[in-house]
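Record type: monomer structure entry
Structure origin: computed from sequence
Chain ID: A
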Amino acid sequence: MSRLFNAYVIVDWSAAAKPSTGADSVWIGVMKRDVRFRLTYECFNPPTRQEAEKKLASLLEDFKKRSEKALVGFDFPLGFPRGFAPALNLTGDAPWRAVWDQLDKMVKDKADNTNNRFGVGSEINRRMTGGPFPFWGCPPKDTLTTLQPKRTREHGPDDLPEFRYADQAAKGASSIWKLYYNGSVGGQAIMGIPAVRRMKVARGEALKAWPFETGFQPLKESDLEGVDVVVAEVYPSLYKAQPAPGEVKDQAQVRVTAEHFAKLDEAGKLGAAFGPGKALTPEVVAVAEREEGWILGVEG
């Protein structure tokens, strides 16, 4: 049985505002096959996002030289809840791409990890609602008129949804609107999407973002003709990682998640994971493909 990928790279991103290693920093887990086709694992903990991007670029370049295909999973949403692009007056046939382009224009991320994620959340709030909604969560010192440390109100029927369809299906996934505090993914998404976009720009059609560019459908070997890298959103908390002695939780999670997808591929079952669960309606599938994205391995 043929495998779709030769390597499985899982990235635990961070929105940290200063260089950091260990807990709550960037972890990159790489599961790949050696010359005897045995799975081997290595892990990297770069102190800044810029160094993480360089490490990812060098890993992908190495795979390309060996004519190997890689699955790269990021632990943050690659899309926003439905209606986000129109609410920001972003135009184009692909709302997800318009959002990626917009974030790339807004985000400032310096070599020392200093970044403007709270300013970006505040500015998007100002443009969409004129108040501190829907983004929320920041240290008190970063409080602005249009961004508050605590959530100011619930989502009503006329607001953008609090959760994407994938978040609801994953049960327990955090809302992208939460920018700060434990379990938040909003800051990672704001800082991470421009990094994924740069990877896409550098590799063009050789990199496909799932499900936006591949379709929300099972992947076959023939679908990867001319494709070196498939980028997907993953949710490491699904895999109940037990840290080994000396491992921090994030480090264990990237290892166990990489192992999970490598084993699925080994068993010939990974291709099916790129398709929707039977319970998902055509409407939800279309929204995932155009705007929201989906979490690899979550059926719905």
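Annotation 1: The mean pLDDT is 96.
Annotation 2: Residues 10 and 180 are 22 Å apart (CA to CA).
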